[in-house]
């Protein structure tokens, strides 16, 4: 078995599960909040389903994080080549990725401040 392929495919599967389960959790909570005044009014079957989806979300996140560590370990040589430009300095791509990450985090922080 090709370890690198296994890790990459598994990471893809877990990120899809994370995205879908995250959407289900957000939509389910919004619907339940709009329909019911408190959690005791929500039907047991709906609470059970949301518990299963939440557990799948958490376990998929743990698996994704662990696989990410192995992914970096397996691909460290290629990652070093991507980080450094031909002149030995940090490449423009790395700076752009860091700026994009910072922008997303700042936008999330500002959205939390504005929305509450």
Give the topology.
Layout: H1 3-35, H2 44-74, H3 76-83, H4 92-115
Explain what the structure shows.
The chain has 116 residues and is an all-alpha fold. The protein folds into two domains: 1-74; 77-116. The chain has four helices and no strands. The protein has helices at residues 3-35, 44-74, 76-83, 92-115. 4% of the residues are buried.
Span between termini: 48 Å
Helical stretch tally: 4
Q: Fraction of residues in helices?
A: over 70%
Total number of beta strands: 0
Secondary-structure element order, N to C: HHHH
Number of domains: 2
> Which structural class matches the secondary elements?
mainly alpha
Please supply descriptive tags for the structure shown above.
4 helices, 83% helix, 116 residues, mainly alpha, 2 domains
What's this, in brief?
The protein has 116 residues and is mainly alpha-helical. The chain has four helices and no strands. The longest helix has 33 residues.
